[in-house]
Write a structure and sequence with these properties.
Structural class: alpha/beta
Radius of gyration: 17 Å
Number of helices: 10
Number of strands: 5
Shape: globular
Strand content: 5-15%
Distance between the termini: 29 Å
Helix content: 40-55%
């Protein structure tokens, strides 16, 4: 009960319940009544959507046991991130994935393509870790990352001492050869679901291209296919 209380307090402090609504707000016109009445809220919404537009994180597909899979594409992360906007984008993404979980499933998988990460930003990394620990303490089932570079090792050396034991035990670092058999065993359709950036045939860019190739989804600044992602997750249940 105490853990749930802490989670709810954190969600209230961070404004987590409104994040998905902020995506909708940023997708609408600046002339909408709510946007005109709340310029600070609109600015927050647009900043968060800018982070989503990088296409550096998204849910796509399920595991064999029905867990949604969040993919991280570190090569798409900005070198100089807007830390608050990035954390807000993570909250919106995690909440969307949680809402789309099949009945009986309570956590998700995270798989990171860490081949070309940006330079480490300690402020960003620590705030992201706090969001996971305080806001989603039991929602992450497993985090797999490949390949292991010097930057990834630096990040893990920084973060692992700060992680609760239960979270640190869920982090698995692999090389490219090591992750493919793991993905084959883990993903719903086995080898067919291994993405091209891990040497497979599944083209994630069909649904989540780089921002340059995306068009605006509405009348605002949203280019990332957030609502299409949610629809596909719902259909995959």
């Amino acid at each position: 009960m105490e853990k749930l209380t802490h989670v709810m307090e954190w969600r209230a402090e961070e404004g987590a319940p409104e994040m998905i609504e902020l995506v909708k707000m940023a997708n609408g016109p600046d002339s909408a009544p709510e946007a005109l009445e709340n310029p600070e809220k609109l600015a927050k919404a647009k900043a968060m959507v800018t982070s989503l537009n990088y296409g550096s994180m998204y849910f796509h597909g399920m595991t064999k046991d029905g867990r949604p899979v969040m993919w991280l594409r570190t090569n798409r992360k900005p070198w100089y991130p807007d830390v608050d906007a990035e954390v807000n984008a993570l909250i919106a993404m995690a909440d969307a994935g949680i809402k789309c979980m099949p009945e009986g499933i309570t956590d998700f998988i995270c798989i990171s393509d860490s081949s070309s990460p940006p330079p480490p930003n300690p402020t960003f990394m620590i705030k992201m870790l706090k969001a996971l620990v305080r806001g989603y303490p039991d929602r992450l089932h497993l985090l797999m990352s490949a390949p292991v570079s010097s930057i990834v090792q630096f990040v893990m050396n920084l973060l692992l001492p700060l992680m609760p034991g239960r979270l640190a035990s869920k982090v698995v670092l692999l090389d490219l050869e090591g992750i493919r058999p793991k993905l084959k065993d883990l993903l719903m359709h086995g080898e067919e679901d291994i993405p091209t950036f891990f040497g497979g045939t599944c083209d994630h860019d069909k649904y989540f291209p780089e921002e340059y190739y995306c068009e605006n989804r509405g009348q605002g600044n949203l280019k990332f296919d957030f609502f299409g992602m949610v629809e596909r997750l719902e259909a995959a249940k």
